[in-house]
Specification:
- It is a single chain.
- The protein is 76% helix and 0% strand.
- The protein is an all-alpha fold.
- The protein has one domain: MetI-like fold.
- The longest helix is centred in the last third of the chain and has 39 residues.
- The radius of gyration is 24 Å and the shape is globular.
């Protein structure tokens, strides 16, 4: 199994290289074709035409688009990600600070959504044919009809304004000192530093945005898992297991669920990639300092170096998720290990 997993990862790495080049070229060209001029936007109102020409030359914007792309790609391969036009800071520093926050949010929302979705799918399967399934079906349909950003607003109104139980702005309470950076992930760094006050503050600020992402994911998992379980429950091996006298609970968890899990795993992998896009509005609504907030500020100010690197990071994350899903497939379905 290890050799098969390594082969899949190696193949994914080979596919990732042209994919990243294609995505980077597409984003680069589209940004250069937009009518906004990042050099003009970064100059003060009293700047002259000579000042604009000098800045455009310094940023390389006076060259042709193919030439600009080759220069940028060469710098990228050498580890130079450029300087932000708006923030006046290295782009690598901005992304490396925001990326762990977004990963914490996505992983929290994904974990919560999977737990709720799997539990709901199992409940729908056990209650099939009855009033319970109908009630859960109505609830899941209602949850699916509301997007992440609207859930974020509803959660703020409910638990931040009407009943102020949880904080809903920022990453942690004002006045708290950020723990020393060891891993870059604030939750882990606060535990390593022994700052439990910071840890619980971070956790409380993470609850509402994570729940907003999880609520949008959970009903999809519920419905797909329920449908897969119903389909597998009619197979011969389930009937044979029942004839051998196995309990319904053991049949469900030892036989039906593992064989019905593949479509759900595939769905989770796809939705995990979409979830990174869904964090953009959620982070803006909650004032959460992640990649979503960073790219919104970059787009607003036409900060090309930041937009280009963040788009590339999103692409890498989606490719990594796809590779991880294929490896999980191997662990869940032994029949794929021989291919």
């Amino acid at each position: 199994m290890l050799l098969v997993a390594l082969r899949i990862l190696f193949f994914r790495l080979l596919v990732a290289v042209p994919t990243l080049i294609a995505v980077s070229a597409l984003v680069f060209v589209i940004l250069r074709l937009l009518p906004a001029d990042p050099a003009a936007m970064s100059l003060p109102p009293g700047a002259t035409a000579e000042d604009l020409a000098r800045l455009r030359a310094a940023l390389g914007l006076d060259r042709s688009i193919p030439e600009q792309y080759l220069i940028w790609l060469g710098d990228l391969l050498s580890g130079d990600f450029g300087i932000s036009i708006y923030f006046r800071r290295p782009v690598a520093d901005l992304v490396s600070t925001a990326l762990p926050n977004t990963l914490e949010l996505v992983l929290s929302g994904l974990l919560l959504g999977v737990i709720v979705g799997v539990a709901g799918g199992l409940l729908m399967f056990r209650a099939r044919g009855g009033r319970g399934e109908e009630a859960l079906d109505v609830v899941s349909s209602a949850m699916m009809s509301i997007p992440e950003f609207l859930w974020a607003l509803l959660l703020i109104l409910a638990f931040g304004v009407a009943v102020p139980l949880l904080p809903f702005i920022g990453r942690m309470a004002p006045g708290m000192m950020t723990p020393p950076g060891v891993t870059g992930f604030l939750l882990l760094d606060s535990l390593i530093a022994g700052r439990l006050d910071v840890f619980f503050s971070l956790l409380l600020h993470l609850v509402l945005p994570a729940v907003a992402l999880a609520i949008a994911l959970a009903p999809l998992i519920m419905r797909v898992l329920r449908a897969s379980l119903v389909e597998v429950a009619g197979d011969d091996f389930v009937t044979q297991a029942r004839l051998r006298g196995l309990s319904e609970q053991r049949i469900l968890f030892a036989h039906t669920l593992p064989n019905a899990a593949l479509p759900t795993i595939s769905l989770i992998g796809v939705q995990a990639g979409f979830m990174f896009g869904g964090t953009v509005l959620v982070e803006v609504i909650f004032g959460y300092p992640g990649l979503g907030n960073l790219i919104v500020d970059a787009v607003r100010n036409h900060d090309l170096p930041v937009i280009q690197l963040v788009a590339l990071v999103y692409c890498v994350l989606v490719l990594a998720i796809n590779a991880a899903v294929e490896v999980i497939y191997l662990l869940v379905n032994p029949r794929l290990r021989t291919h």
